[in-house]
Amino acid sequence: DTGVSQNPRHKITKRGQNVTFRCDPISEHNRLYWYRQTLGQGPEFLTYFQNEAQLEKSRLLSDRFSAERPKGSFSTLEIQRTEQGDSAMYLCASSFGQGALRPQHFGDGTRLSIL
Amino acid sequence: AQKITQTQPGMFVQEKEAVTLDCTYDTSDPSYGLFWYKQPSSGEMIFLIYQGSYDQQNATEGRYSLNFQKARKSANLVISASQLGDSAMYFCAMSGMDSSYKLIFGSGTRLLVRP
Fold first, then answer.
1. Residue B6 burial by CB count (10 A; 0-12/13-18/19+): exposed, middle or buried?
2. A68 phi and psi, to 5 degrees?
3. End-to-end distance of chain A based on CA atoms, in angstroms?
4. Are the Cβ atoms of A41 and B107 closer than 8 angstroms?
5. Which residues, in sequence order, are CB contacts of A39 under 8 Å at separation 6+?
6. Which of B47, B77, B4 is nearest to A26 (CA)?
7. Chain B residues close to A31, C-beta within 8 Å
8. In this structure, are residues A69 and B18 in contact, taking their beta carbons and an 8 Å threshold?
9. In this structure, how many other beta carbons lie within 10 angstroms of the beta carbon of residue A99?
10. Which residues of A touch B45 (CB under 8 A)?
11. Contacts of A46 (CB under 8 A, 6+ apart)
C-alpha cells in the first residue's frame, strides 16, 4: 500500500506566475486535505474533499487558489498570480471514513518558493 | 474555537533516555481526537500516535506513549529510549466534531537527541 504522493517536491517560480501541485492519496481514502505550512509554524488547513466534492474552504484560501479532485482520486491545487506570501510548504493528507479519530496520512509536501 | 499549545520550542535529550513533549489543548467539543506527528528536516509529516477523548487508557505505540490527562486538557507525548533518528520537529494536533475533521496543529517542538 503506497503512501500519499505529492508532485513536484520543489517548485521555484517568479511572482505573478501560475503554479499547480498534484496529490495522489492512498487508494480508497475518500477524504483528501490540503494544508499550508510556513517556516516555524504548524500546518494550517486550506480545504478538503470527500470523494470528488469540495466541502470546506478556509479563509486562507483566497480567490487565487483553486483545488479540484476529479473522480474522487488525485487532487490538484492551483495558485494563480503567485505572490511572495505564497511561499510555503503545501501538504496533502488523506484519510478513510469519517470521525475525529481517523488519522490523516501526509505526503512529503511541495515546497513553493516565489522569487 | 479549538486551540493547541506547545510551549517548548526546543528540547534536548540524551540518547537512550526518555523525553516528554508537552501539549495542551482547548475545545468545547465533547468528542475529539488528539494526534502527534513527527516532521524530520526532509519535510514529510509522519503519523505517530492518537488518542480519543473517550479512551480510558493512554495510547501506546512502540516507544511512543501519549499521557492523556483530560481534566488538565493535556496530551503529552513520551518517547522512551531516545534514538538519534528521533531528532525532528514534533507537532501535536486535534480534530473535533466539525464534519471536516480537519486538524488543528500546535507550533511544534524541535527535539534534538544528543549522542
1. buried
2. -140, 155
3. 37
4. yes
5. none
6. B47
7. 101
8. no
9. 12
10. 43, 91, 93, 106, 109
11. A33, A34, A35, A36, A57, A58, A60, A61, A65, A67, A77, A90
Q: Write down the pLDDT at residue A101.
A: 77
- Reply yes or no on whether the pLDDT at A99 is more than 90: no
Confidence of residue A46 (pLDDT cuts 50, 70, 90): very high
Calculate mean pLDDT across residues A12-38.
96
Separation CA B75–CA B94 (nearest Å): 10
Distance CA A88, CA A94 (A): 20
Residue A25: all three cell numbers together:
492519496
Query: Does B83 touch chain A if contact means CB atoms closer than 8 Å?
Result: no
Q: What pLDDT does residue A28 have?
A: 87
DSSP codes of every residue in B36-91: EEEE-TT---EEEEEEETT-SSPPEETTEEEEEETTTTEEEEEE-S--GGG-EEEE
**Structure confidence at residue A98 (pLDDT):** 73
Q: What is the average pLDDT value for chain B, to the nearest integer?
A: 94
- The pLDDT, as a whole number, for residue A100 is 65
Alpha-carbon distance A19 to nearest alpha carbon in chain B (angstroms): 20
With an 8 Å Cβ cutoff, is A53 touching chain B?
no
